[in-house]
Write a structure and sequence with these properties.
heterodimer, A: mainly alpha, Formate dehydrogenase/DMSO reductase fold, 72% helix, 0% strand, globular, B: alpha+beta, Alpha-Beta Plaits, 2 domains, 4-stranded antiparallel sheet, rod-shaped
Chain lengths: 456, 167
Amino acid sequence: MTPPTDTIAGMIRPVPTPPDSQTNRDLLAVMKGASAGYWFLLGLALFFMHLAGGIWIFQVYKGLGIAGYAHPIFWGVYVVTFVFWVGIAHAGTLISAILFLFRAKWRNAINRGAEAMTVFAVLTAAQFLGIHVGRIWKSYFILPYPNQRGLWVNFKSPLLWDTFAISTYATISILFLFVGLIPDIAIARDRAKGWKKVLYTVLALGWVGNSNQWKAHNRAVLHLSGLATPLVLSVHSVVSWDFAMSLVPGWHTTIFAPYFVAGAIFSGFAMVLTLMIPVRRIFGLEAYITDYHFENMSRFILLTSIVCGYAYISEYFISWYSGVEAEQTSFWLRAFGPYWISTWVMIIFNTILPQLLWFKKLRVNVPFLFVLSVCINIGMWFERYVIIITGLSREYNPATWGEYIPSWPELGILAGSFGFFCTFFLIFLKLFPVVAIAEMKEIAIHEKAHGAQGSH
Amino acid sequence: MARLVGIFELPAQVAAAVKQLRDRGYTDIETYAPAPFPEVDDAVHPKPSKVRLMTLIGGLTGVITGYAMTIWMANNWQIMIGGKPFSSIPPYTIIAFELTILFGGILTVLGLFIFGGLAKFKIDPAYDARFSAEDFGVVVRCRDQDVAEIDALLRDNDATEVNLVES
């Protein structure tokens, strides 16, 4: 039996234009249009990226001799910068995975930006392996692929571990970023026109937010967080073993893994501040990224700065206490040898300046935080410079001591790495929501629900 | 058969409506939500998502692959390095660990695609752009004679709007 047709017809009403939510409007506005300032920054980033590309092609043509390598130092700015960018990449997964597992709700506003930063930082870092080895056309030798010679790679080498760690980290961070983006891409899809509509339709993979999808999504995010948590701690540990597994004085220490991980989180949080402070200011996101978020990040920076400071002190103490002359000399020359400037920049910027964050007034002072975060980035780059260069320049036999001065191609490619990173971050800002919209809505709807209950 | 879609503002209303529909014997129910709310998703699908099985399979495959690959390769062409055994478990554990995470992560995302029904681009006509704003939707398939009953039930649960969509 069917009901009278006019009942059904009466119920088919034209759907009114969807009233959009405030969260959608505010956060999608970031992606709309682009100011002259944006194009200028993008142009600048592209310029440096291409400059570095040109220098790199020149280096491939001339050979690694144009880098500042001189006996006994064959790990220079390229390896320093590689470790620097891998370190930067740690904050994203820490915020997304570890703070997710700890149910730290304040991560919601900053996790997307930090995840994107992670992906681009890992991609930047990975290039330096290729740049450093010189003969780029042989770089695939590091992979265990079947070959006619029947040879396999040496799995006892930390460099192999590093290959696996970095490629796993890059893959997992990309998956993490993409999984988190799917619901937000669907939001953009429903409101986009033209080529963007096509792009978002493809990338949203038919996301509609039904119960099955959310259930699977929640479970996937939980499990990816569970997998990424040990991963984030392992990646920089493995990077540190590139050094710690050798016998170079100053490198051969067991503290390296936790020391590097703390330093990585420290520098990563500083980079999140360096990026998110201008983003918040330029796009007027003060309602979403509040001073409370910056204060929490400052606390993380303070904590990890103290851990780093402790590692610096214990390194010096153990080298003195060990009674090993080579170790003692190496550390003495770090502070008072030819590379003393780098060492003192590292100590002052990484351990002394962040102590100002004990003051609440400074923790919520955004311009101060921005300057501090830039100082920390510089300090952390110098930390790796100190470890690598001073270590290699003063090994056991004084007859093999030598000096290293970075060459212009190395510095050009270092500048270009920032160009590469910024290019992708700037493009990301305009294509995808830099604040996780669905997660902000979760909070907004919870608040609405409590408000509704209160009024009943 | 007919399909009705009710528009709601709060997750608790959706969960209550779904529960009442289930109690009355309607089984073909779907919800649309702008953000994850466990009470809504659990009302429709009480069982945990099978994605967790995929993570387990991926992780186990990874750890086995990691150890098997390293041990086999080191013994396939034996090169003595630093006097260490060819099958050195401690260094190979690092490779096994990384592959556990890698395979586990990839299969988790694959699980999201499979069990979340992603990568299907045909969108349900009951879906509305409002569900990616801040509204919730409850879609019920029912016999034509039950339309009035469900309409009343959804409205009793504070649905702001109830529409009929082609089934």
